[in-house]
Amino acid sequence: MKREYYSDSIANFLTTDRHAILGELVSNSEFAVENTQRDAWQFQIDSLKKLLVGQSGTIYLEYSIPRMGKRVDVLLLIGNAIFVVEFKVGDTQYWSGALNQVTDYALDLKNFHDASHDRFVVPILVSTKAPAVPVLIESTPRRDGLISTIKSNGSNFAAIIQDVHTFVDSAETGERTQIVSAEWEDGQYLPTPTIIEAAMALYNGHSVAEISRSDASGAELHRTTDAISTVIENAKSGHYKAICFVTGVPGAGKTLIGLNIATRHLDDESNTYSVFLSGNGPLVQILQEALARDKVAREKATGRRITKSAARSEVKTFIQNVHHYRDEYLKDSRAPADHVALFDEAQRAWDLQQTSKFMRQKKNQPNFNQSEPEFLISCIERHKDWGVIVCLVGGGQEINTGEAGIAEWAEALNRSFPDWHIHISDRLTDSEYGAGEVLSKLKSRRNVHYNSGLHLSVSMRSFRAENVSRLVKEVLDLDTINANRTLDSVREQYPIVLTRDLSKAKEWLRQQARGSERYGIVVSSQANRLRPLAIDVRMQPNPIHWFLADSGDVRSSYYLEDVATEFDIQGLELDWACVTWDADFRHADVLPLLKLEICQW
């Protein structure tokens, strides 16, 4: 599959008629091309025909970065370097947002395109009306072959290419052989998008194949998606209700599976309309806001206008807080609009005691006698024809009081829903899911199916983090010998430092981050004695501002003032984190555990 709208040798590009190149861009565009876009392409073509005279290599126009749902204006393979070029036609300054944008494109290639891993990648911002500025060719602090972003108005473009090659030829590390375009194009794209990036890409029509890895983890995503889709289609055609339980190792992509299924059925006129539900409040708020902002921006780019409130309303029908969904159908006895409900972190649904207590105290329902799983199943049961529930299950992750674990879902099915078809991951019997005993009671039921395709066994997490989970376990187990070995193996790709000086930690984060890579301070929720360092875990940040605002917003994680606890960040990602502990993380046999006692006055 071609990733670009146009590609050719630079020699052919220079001799091809400008209208033919423009026509190829327009014909390959996935969307209607507005006049502003057509004019921008024409300007770029004309400019590049002047700037690339005397150069040899390959040119790609509108090269896809599917993980980000974006396209690079121009990508050049010249000599032994990859040039990522973003044009800002008419801009009189080198705006920070544009600099971050082109840096992010270059980072994506460096990190996720295997043929670019060891190559020098050079991001260049061309602001056509900006003044010329001095050019310094240097590596970023990681020294992994990514060159610091270069600012140009185009007048010195040829000189920049020459200076880059001089720098690369003198570099001590990195691949310096000539790039063969055919070999580079055959490189695998192995992305690990953040959950926010994945949600935006899927919501905007990209397939999971475009934003997932092409290795074993990507193959598993397709297999599990197909298994769930088969359950949905069979329930629909057979006019029955079904539930399936999907399991997976940490980082395997369970949430991505749920979003993928939900985005396949966004048409509210279809009877396969679906909803993605999560009890993770910060995650839901952030995804809803990110999708709404992205929709407004995309509509604006095509000349259409939509208010953010309208965009939010549209998004909220697709991603909802499970507790809001529950409250809505507590008031409304009709069947939900959706036939398919996907529950993320289903093991965290409330048990009977917690649900009854909440209903009694908060909803004035003194006689409510259902657990949250039983009530949620009963909502889909209201459909006269068919319905499907997909439970996305994490093992050993019930972290709050009253979270029932997956066993309560099975108990509810046994108690109240004898006719439902049940599709179970064959790994749900593992001890970490705590459902073995109750699952044995399902054996006497008809229509219970165990399916290995409902388990995700391969983590999708970044290539830089493959052994970090093992390191954490070894540290917690006080296995110093193996922890040192593991640390040595990950240190180059996954820098880890230790300090007691918070100011040094903040400065280190700022130095490491490139482009719009997000960094922030993450603190144990029990760290109550860090207030002398201006860290107060009682002051909860607004998750939308903390995770989505840019580096110029004092409420964002970038400012390193507001901190997030494990409850604020579950299911979300930071590129660089300062993980901060109080006296709740220490060797118990070395220092006595202290109990904080409040004096009575």
What can you see in these coordinates?
The mean pLDDT is 88. The protein contains 22 helices and 16 strands. The chain folds into three domains: 6-185, no CATH class; 195-456, Rossmann fold (3-Layer(aba) Sandwich); 497-580, no CATH class. With 601 residues, it is an alpha/beta fold. The strands form three sheets. Strands 7, 8, 9, 10, 11, 12, 13 and 14 form an eight-stranded parallel β-sheet that branches. It is globular. Helices cover 39% and strands 15% of the residues. It has helices at residues 10-15, 18-28, 35-51, 96-112, 157-170, 181-185, 195-203, 208-211, 216-238, 254-263, 281-301, 308-316, 322-331, 352-362, 372-381, 407-416, 436-440, 468-476, 480-490, 502-512, 543-548, 566-569, and strands at 6-9, 58-65, 70-78, 81-88, 120-127, 150-152, 241-248, 274-278, 319-321, 340-344, 387-393, 421-425, 448-451, 455-456, 519-523, 576-580. This is Schlafen group 3-like DNA/RNA helicase domain-containing protein. Residues 241-588 form the Schlafen group 3-like DNA/RNA helicase domain. Pfam families: SLFN-g3_helicase.
